[in-house]
Amino acid sequence: MFPHKTKNNPVHMLIMDQINDVENCLIQFESFIRASSAPNVSFDTLGTLAKGIIDAEAVADVSLRKMIDSLSGSSFLTATRQDLISIATGCDAIANKCENYAKMSVFQQFIFPAEYSEDLLNIISISREQFDVLRRSISLLFSDFGSLLKDHSILDEIRKHESSVDAIEESLYERIFKLDISLAEKMQMREFADNIADISDTIENLADKIQIMLVTMNEVLPQAKKGHYAIPQFNINNLEWTKYILEQCNEMKVPVILGVSEGATKYMGGYIAVSSMVRGLVESLGIEIPVCIHLDHGTSFESCKNAIDAGYTSVMIDASKHELHENIRITKEVVDYAHERGISVEAEVGHIGGTEDNISATSLNATLEDCLVLYTNTNIDSLAPALGSVHGFYKGEPNLDFETMDTINKNLPIPLVLHGGTGIPDDKIQKAISCGISKININTDLQVVWSNAVREFLKEDTKAYDPRKVIGSGEKAIKNRIKEIVTLFKTKM
């Protein structure tokens, strides 16, 4: 994601320079269209104006190359670099469309009939307004990404403008095809109109690109802490699992953290495979909620680094099995690497008991002193203090230390995380949230409801063999349980 303190980052400054250059193309293009509607305008005059657009586009190309060159030596993640290059090349496409129209108009000696000039100028005017909103959105990527994702009104404004352009374009097409001219002439007019209207479409596509960028936990957890609700971390195990979680959370319009253990990462083919799968699903499913992909219980600096380099947007370093001073050393190493690349880090104090990825641990509750020492020496973004929860199934009634939980919350400025959410009674979940828990991890719960549904399906259909039907038979159970959990956590945008 975006490194800390990126507002004055050279890449930020260069991409804003490029955007300014593209805007100059739009301004000159508007002048070209305005001039072409004037009576008795000569193609010599239009040629001069077209030359200005061509020169402006060349300047924008130079800015684009500078930005891309700067990215190659930056600390941005590979996935983030790709996102920024995609945004920058999309902006460049706008300048190209202005240049292409002007060139075609002069080369083909074509001028739109004057009675349509108002429509064309309206489209360009709206497109410029869209572009101004896009500029603000791109700037927020570097300065306040969280607010951009939380407040959809900024990007929605771009989409509203595009709808206005569509309406003008449709009316224009109707009028063109009613003209008493040849079909070839009608198609030529439509081609020119399409070129102008495509500018608005391109801007909307860029807004969509920004919308689906994955987030860190820093974009969602502080709001949860402040608003006294919890964000669910649903651990994923395969493509179907991920798809169900994304679809249901998107339907409910709530942010989600996709947790991936080291074991699940290995099972699904490795860090790059998991990161690519999540990003592909977010894009292909049209997911519009904040999505974080988080390494759950990373056991070493190397595993956290591999996850970060592959495009995970958050990691948990669990060095709690070590003495506190060693926990601090390992955690600090992860934080330094992660924060340079804009990645959020969760850590653990004490020992959360139970079994996860076939690894068993004995519970050891955290203390306020240890939590403070770890936080002040590492600058972590969230903390999972062991306070009586366990991974997997509870033996008897969960015994959470709410008093210590509340004390830690009041003395630490960062969000707290509760592991082992499965099996904790609803009233204790709500009490934990009131004591500062902002993220609750859910894994076993979904595994149980899914496996029960699959067993029932196979019991009823003993000849079933299609893996899509077998795995898919648990979809409804997972989604229904997600609904219940999100409602219990009072999760919101």
Number of helices: 19
Q: Average pLDDT value?
A: 89
| Helix share bin | 55-70%
Kindly state the number of beta strands. Answer: 11
The shape, in one word, is elongated
CATH class division of the largest domain? Alpha Beta
Can you summarize the main beta sheet?
Answer: 8 strands, parallel
Spatial ordering of strands, largest sheet: 8-5-4-3-2-1-11-10
Order of helices and strands: HHHHHHHHEHEHHEHEHEEEHEEHEHEHHH
Radius of gyration: 27 Å
* CATH homologous superfamily assignment of the largest domain: Aldolase class I
Number of domains: 2
Notes on the protein architecture:
The protein is of the alpha/beta class. The chain folds into 2 domains: 10-211, Phosphate transport system protein phou homolog 2, domain 2 (Methane Monooxygenase Hydroxylase, Chain G, domain 1); 217-489, Aldolase class I (TIM Barrel, Alpha-Beta Barrel), CATH 3.20.20.70. It is 63% helix and 10% strand. It has 19 helices and 11 strands. It has helices at residues 10-36, 43-72, 78-107, 117-143, 145-150, 153-176, 183-211, 221-227, 239-252, 262-267, 271-284, 301-310, 324-340, 368-378, 402-411, 426-434, 444-460, 467-472, 475-489, and strands spanning 231-235, 256-261, 291-298, 314-317, 344-349, 353-356, 359-361, 382-385, 390-391, 416-418, 437-442. The chain has an 8-stranded parallel sheet. The protein has a 3-stranded mixed sheet with strand order 7-6-9, with no helix packed on it. Strand 1 (231-235), helix 9 (239-252) and strand 2 (256-261) form a beta-alpha-beta unit. The longest helix has 30 residues, at 43-72. The two termini are 20 Å apart. The relative contact order is 0.09. The model is unreliable at 354-362 (pLDDT under 50).
